[in-house]
Amino acid sequence: MSRSIVKGFLSIFSGKMLTSVISIVALPFVVRVLGPDGYGDYAFLLSVFSVMMIFFSSGVTEGVQKFAAEERDFEEWRSNVVGFYLKLATGLAALGVVCVVGVTRLGIVERQLGARFDLYFYLLAALVVAAQYRAFARRTLMGFGLEEYSEPLRVVGKILLFGTGLGLGYFFGFGVEGFLLGNILGDAVVAVIGLWIILNRVSIREVVSRTAESVSRNELLTFNVLNIALVLLVMSLYHTDIIMMRMFLGSEETGYYRAALSIAEYIWFVPIALQALLLHSASTLWSNEEYARISSLTTRIIRYTALLAVVMSIGVAVLADRFVPYYYGADFVPMIRPLLFLLPGVVGFALARPIYAVSQGNGDLKPIIVATSGSAALNLVLNYLLIPRFGMIGAATATSIGYGSMLLMHVGCARHLGYYPLKDFRAPRILAAGAIAAPVIYAADWVLASDMAALAVVPVVGFVVYAVASLAVGAVSVEEVLNVLSYFPSPIDNWSQSVQQWRQE
User: What stretch or stretches form a coiled coil here (predicted)?
Assistant: First the structure.
């Protein structure tokens, strides 16, 4: 099966863009339906669920995507891989249900969290099954090169989640349980459709039969174990603070803090898309031992990421006091201070993402696990020490340091693997561009009395000033901008090529 990397990337990017837009539009309604207390409970439950599913799902889904994409000298390779992982996914989902129902029936959930959480955890047990098959179906489709199916299904699931949750909450008074039911419905529909597409492309007889002897179970399971360890470490960075906030401080402050994280993490939109692209592109360079090109590619991508992340973080910091009351409502104003503390770490993590992806392309996960474990341990310890004493600000400070340390850890990992991701980073010039633009952005915000006018005008003014400053100080060159624009669709690419030709004459 041949696959187009460009076509696959565009499908993934489009799906990510659509789901992000849906989330951005729906989130203000979600927080208003649930309120700070209910939203805190919902965020806590999703964090617990995400950490739990690392053990029951991450090795399966990453494994089937990797091995289903490979061409092997074995006619029914893909059917056997799908069958092996489908059986494993089913067994692990059953184990997950038993664990969730067991801790609930034993009264552990009620003693630790309160009686209302019993119902939530029974719904989580159902979500284990739906989410397992949804993730399995989507990752298998990606492994088959069928992103044109996997990504639209992801959008369908997101629409069903928010549509069901908001409908049940607004019209029938459901709270957290309504959104959990929305998750279950969305995942179940995606799973059924995805599995139907998959089973029409493999031998059902081979899927349900015993895995062939020519398929190395040891190879498949070894990858699973290493990947589970890596995903656990990365996901701990996302969820440790949420879980500890709920345990130490309660649901209301957790709701405020999770809202702050949601805003800060919008800065990762472009880095996440680049991460998906680099994982494919870097693999070929690693296989050809083109270390100089790997260093050049990574440095350029990190510099572009830094340029975007810096101006976005300045904009968020300046406009937060105007944006938050409109987006979340006046009740969520307390989230602004932790948001400001989160921004430096979010920028650091944004820069670490491309390095992480390029290192993954090497295929050796052990150095990446070591690097990530350092950040995960630091994040865990700092959250444990700072949350009880400083509350939301402590969580934001700890998480920001943990996020930021990912850049340092993965630069060290990259050097170990043999490439230099910061060779032409131009950090002083990027900081100089930010220092020039920041006062102008702040002044524009101060001059405009109307919130709506500020939200419309300040981002445009800030971006123009920052872009000119970046060119002036040499953080980016005109040639680099034109080269990037040449990859855009017409007429932008034609205009870029015309300007390049004019400059050469």
Answer: none
